[in-house]
Amino acid sequence: MLQIEGLSKRFGGLVAVNDLSFQTPRNTILGMIGVNGAGKTTVMNCISGLYSSDTGRITLDGKDITNKTPHDIAHHGLGRTFQVPRVFRRMTLIENLLSTVLDSPLSDAELVEQATSILDEVQLHELRYNYAEELSGGQQKLLELARVMMFDPGTILLDEPFAGVNPGLCKILIERIESLVDAGKSFLLISHDLTSIYRLSHHIVVLNQGQKIAEGNVEDIKNNPQVIEAYLGN
Amino acid sequence: MPISAASEDQVAIIRNRIWYGLLFVLTVWLALVPVIGGNLPFYFYLMLWITMASAFNIISGFTGYMPFGYVAFYGIGAFTTAILTKKLGVSVYFSIPVAGLAGVILSLLFAKTLKLSGIYFAIVSLALSIILRLVITNMPEEITGGSFGISLGSRAEPVKSFYFMLVTLLAALSTAAWLARSRLGKALKAIRDDSEAAAVMGINVPRARLLAWMIAAFFPAICGGIEAWYTNIVDTETAFDILITAKTIIYSIAGGLGTVTGPIVGTVIMVVLDDLIWQQFPLLNLFLLGLVIVLLIQFMPRGIVGTMMRVWPVLRRYIL
Amino acid sequence: MYEFLILNALVNGIIIGVLYSLIGCSLNVLYGVLRVVNFAHGEFIIVGSFFGYVLFTTLGIHPLLSVPIAAIVFFVVGYGLYYVLLPRLAQADDPETSSFLMMYGVSLMLGAGMLMIFEADTRTLDFRFSPMSIHIGTLYISTARLVALGVNLVVVGLLTWFLYFTLYGKAFRAVIMNREAVQIIGINIHRISAAAFGLAAGLAGITGVMISLVFPAFSPFSGPDYTLIGFIVIVLGGLGHPIGAIVGGVIFGLTEQLSIVFLPQAMAPIVGFSILILVVFLHPRGLFGKKLLR
Predict the structure, then answer these.
(1) What is the pTM of this model?
(2) Which member of B1, B204, B316 has the closest CB to residue A92?
(3) Which of A84, A141, C14, C177 has the most CB atoms within 10 Å of its CB?
């Protein structure tokens, strides 16, 4: 379970995130929505350790991970994807997945088998020996998800997983996410694709200018006047 | 688009056969050179450059750093060997490995620079190597020979140093090959491609790249030491010559960074060209070296092996 | 005795520093607009020195007149050179490192080329101003150096005016700030890049002529020294920041001249490099520039 308390982050004079608190229990998908610049990606970067937070506490499964190094945080059980895919471009798809489990006691052959079957689940099996840079943008997003699946953390952060992905691939992504949640993972999901967010999320947090302006289940959020105003203007 | 449906085990067998076959041919050919009276200097330096290029590839092609002051490790190795052998009367068989150690220690001293990004790392690396050269040149003559250098006396033994170099070459190539197949090697490539994403995926970036840096510093130091033994003289002009870094980089790039066979192929082709054609015209030599660099970067930035792998993806599974 | 040396070092430090600033400015234009780290910049400059030298020795052209001639000739050549060398690099895995390496190749070619044409001897520009030096207080300052200072200040001033007060210059700065965005709003990125390359080359040409006035001698081997100085200056001032180069240049010039007072000549560069390394680690943005850690 991921818990954020009082998180703040500023860049010089700009307050990107202000006193944010929420939590993501197991078997849950927490959707995070808000207009561009609301601070959503900043929150993810603070959680995963790429940014240092100015104030607040981030707890993962009971352990304090605030301001730890990214790889420490990862090993505590956190995985993430990026808004613009950051795959390992000059490595093959299999190698992309293998690079996440370098400390595994399993043999190389077993790991390759595991990686192959995961790539099969996201329908990238045929391309597994291609370099990641040879994939299309949407396929790279799938690869990022496959990479996280290989890493197998308890909590997963997804930043705009559906952006720029065609409907066929979206469907696969959604199916994968749903089955992972059923298997016990928790998700923090950022997306502008309100349809998918409403379908997937159990709970939604709405950010505007770094602050939480609303929180609740899908129905509450859909009808919340503040949310509507923030997203669509007056 | 799909590449070779052969199973991983089958591929591994063929890949190993190709690699060990190549190593075998190389070893036998080189080992016979002194025996059949072949061109010793040519092959000695060929081995030296292949070793340099392979080691460089570890920090550059595998990990993504381009140390423009790489010669610093070579120079420290040369001087450590010369000082231990000439001034302290130690056997070469001891002083050269110690020289390798000196290279590793130097790499630890410079380790903080690994935090720097691309160009800054390259420039600072260059600055550090120049500082090292100046410091050594200005040290008391009794220790480092001032600007005249150190002569190792009449200890030169071309054949023995030739075989020492051969052993070093095989060690370097084997290390690179091991790295390419190992988990550390995958970590390094991930760091090369995107170090932040690598960290987020659980890779201990600082530790992995430090290891690569240390390995990449060991071999040039040994090379400097063996060459000192071979030529019998060490001085700061030649031991810290920026052209050593330049050639190392070019030979690696010509073959293809990030592959194990790349540095071998690139070095062989470039050294043969250099020897056959260009040694006749020294000035033109430099000019043509520059031209080759420009043409390579323009038209084959991934080098010969790298471009082949891009064009024939099947090769990716079979060539290290 | 020391006061005299130090005063001398201060004055010459500023003169040389402004010259170094010019090197930094032209390097910065290249890096800022094109993301090219020009390893051949020192050679560009020395070609400029030879250019002025040849004009003087064969046609008797006054060095000050060589300045605008060099500026124009080098601009045109630089403009064309852009199209030959750079567009293909944009698709590389790592354009910055690729350009760095390629320009190293260019530097080898230029250096070797100059060696073949002019041979290895150092050259001196035998132009004498009258009077040869000017007496200020206790100091004798070479007139050539003062003239160079004046010219350099004018050039830096013009460059600043161009970048900050003209429309075309603002376009340059827009590209420095955000390359992709500029292409979207319809500016031809190739034309601006070529112009930037031409501008940097032109500045290098001018710098070369100035070098023959400020320093006693130059040779085809002098290039790398100036390239390295340029790098130090722009790292000090902040990569890509035009004004930073000016400050960085003066600081470095002063440091260099002052160290020569206290250290043996051969060791003086160590001070400069050490400052570079200190700045890179302690104040990673340089004095004015952007983050450069991984």
Answers:
(1) 0.89
(2) B316
(3) A141
